[in-house]
Amino acid sequence: MSSASDTKPCPFCGERIKVTAVKCRFCGEFLNKPLPQALPEDEEDAGYEGETPAARRKQGDGSEQVLMWILPVKRSFFAIMAGYMGLLALLPYAFVFYAIFPSEARRDTLRTVLYLGVGLNLLFGLLGLVLGVGGIVLIMKGAKKGLPRCIVGIVGGMLGAVIYPIVVVNFINRFIGP
Ligand SMILES: [Zn+2]
Fold first, then answer.
1. Model's pTM, two decimal places?
2. Cα of 53 from ligand 1 centre, angstroms
3. Which domain holds residue 68?
């Protein structure tokens, strides 16, 4: 016999279980592991909070299980890295501020700094694009999450690998000289 005070809803399946239970007798989840929605990275996935781990497991097929094993995080490594690469690809835009007050003495330094920015942006921007597209492919297969990060990767990648080189090469040709 149990009263309401010595039971609680299982955080994974919602069945009422003993407060002291270590493992849910309905869904078999261990209760001492952190809840999925307790992870700080999850605020952008509010729509998925009602989904139980058991329901999520049922959706997975063999290839997704392999992906989960290779990339052992809910949000794909692709999405996470795409987000970082997209942000890194924006950093060399700061170099343009250096160009606001060009002087004769700084001309060579300025050209070097701007070309360095182009190199960095080609690296980070292309990585952001590739990882962002890869992350979206995983999301469309239902294996992963992290769409906002993929978009940051793709948009940042475009701004970095495509727009920045065009802007900077034009700027150098027009105002600094080859
Ligand atoms: Zn349960």
1. 0.51
2. 10
3. 60-176
